[in-house]
Amino acid sequence: MLNELLGILDKFGLSAEKRPLSALFSSKELNQKLYAQHFSGRSAVNESMRAQLLCFSTDSTIPLKRFIACQIAVDQRTDDGRIFRTTGIITEAVQGASDGALISYLLTIEDPLSLLNHRKNSRVFLNKNEIEVIEILHKEWCQRSRVYAASNQLDLRGLNENYEIKTQITQYNETDFQFLKRLLARISVNFIQKEQHAFVASFSTDIQAKKLSLFDQNQFLNQLSRQNIRFHRSDATERFDSITQISAKRMMQATQVHLQRWRSDFIDQEQTQKTSKHQHSENISNFGSGLELSYAITPASINDLNQKDGADRADILHLEKLAKNQTLMLDQLAKVFVAKSTVRDAEVGCWFELLGYTQIDQHRGADNEYIITSKEFFNQNNLPKDLNYQCQCLVEESNWLDKLVGFNGERQGNILNLQRREVPVLPIYDPILDRPKAHPMHARVTGEQGETVYVDEWSRIKVRYLFSRSEDNVHASNAGSSETDRDSAWVEVLTNFAGKGFGSRYLPRVGELVLLDHIDGDIDRPIVVGRIHESERYPSKFDDKGKLPDTRYLSGVRSQEINASGYNQLRFDDTTGQISAQLQSSYAVSQLNLGKLSHPKEKEKSDDRGEGFELRTDQWGQSGQVLVYC
């Protein structure tokens, strides 16, 4: 029956090589069983493409799992006869209605990058910048996923800036796609999935891998192959693709950005302010508008005090760069252009010169050049009337009309979002909202081999994040899950008394469990807020006797001798009728006991043994002047 269908199309001059729309699957079997009729979707800079392909077949027994993860190329014949190709991976397949002769299939096609949505993880990267982390992710995906490796390549040629090496970058309960998008947005790097070759020689040309292209300046964007697009109002007799409608939209935005953050090395707040150089309004100046975004962002990270980690030191230039990029982002949002077009090869991430539009022709140079930042598109084959009606009935019976843009309207078209080429393209980023939610979490104290207490001059420690898995740290020789000082950046420890050279000091020891919270809710800025007793790590046993809840009226501090069994303790006994205090060193059982003296408690109460005070030791005692007692 499919051969009969294709034969009918051939008679109407719609052979595979002449159809406006055709699909090529990486599966030869699917190529023999499916006819592509309608293609629609959306693609944009800093987003993954998502499209729908409507197909018909005479075979109702095709297993839907045969579609999933299959590579596909959708080819569209352009106005100049060339073949414009869009490739992707099938991520969803739905079997629709059948009339006994034909059956409908609706396929969802996405970029290879969409595969990253199906892997969620938590892990730590140390002493790397965001681009290095992206390279690690890409390499891992190529090793773990045959489909990804065959369909995606990383292209870094569009990067010109230098990026700060961070002491620690943390992925926390995020998909790899969310993580990648967040990292790139915070350093103002754009990404786009591009074809290796936007045009192919024939519909049967082999499917090639796409490119994940990163860029930080507009100069790295290519011009459309047709170079310019003509404005021409909609006309049924128009021979060439054109823009048929265009409108400009301007929106009020903040014109000033103020950023501030804490600098531990300065013991002071660091701040900067930037004002837009773009004229947002003829009625108010950028300085006098009062429209300002002021952020108190995460404190600057402090790396190894001896620079052993190789991370970049915090610098006011980093803060100024973020403020500048925030200002440029607001300039970008202030004015956009929306165009209705029939240009089938309008490629997202490319620029063109617009011709023939009176209101814009008065501009010169870059003012008349536009970058395509997003595209919503549809295209369909022009079937014979009876066959077209048959297909329409199947679509309506499948309830797919709302999913197929332009199905009952014009044969093809698109909506383009444009911005002037001279305006930098930047990802939308909020330094407060665009980060994962960070909650208190467990960690284990680590250190150099043989060390029991491992700290730096600021009393910071190293920890092992318990979520960090060895298989995720192969790239770093297991750093992150090695149970050594290589598992984290230096982590601050909260104390209840911290003066200049004075205060309280209780340093966590290697192997102890601590509770991490996060400064300003930033997952990359952990701080130890306490330690936890769990399971066999039972609470303090004063005098090495008793246990809770029997000894619940005792409080105080007990330490542990390094690599031995001795201890020191300050113990308060608030038991009714036996209130006392004790300062003790287990060495020579040296004690100062005060109050109602009693034997060490193993239960709620113990036997009395006197009143007043007791100063005793199994060794010698000494006084520099006089020791008076009576």
From TrEMBL:
Signal peptide: none annotated. Residues 560-621 form the Putative type VI secretion system Rhs element associated Vgr domain. InterPro entries: Gp5/Vgr_OB, T6SS_Rhs_Vgr_dom, T6SS_Vgr_RhsGE, Vgr_OB-fold_dom_sf. Residues 483-532 form the Gp5/Type VI secretion system Vgr protein OB-fold domain. Pfam families: Phage_base_V, Phage_GPD, T6SS_Vgr. SUPFAM superfamilies: gp5 N-terminal domain-like (SSF69255), Phage tail proteins (SSF69279). This is Gp5/Type VI secretion system Vgr protein OB-fold domain-containing protein. It comes from Acinetobacter gerneri DSM 14967 = CIP 107464 = MTCC 9824. The lineage of its organism: Bacteria, Pseudomonadati, Pseudomonadota, Gammaproteobacteria, Moraxellales.
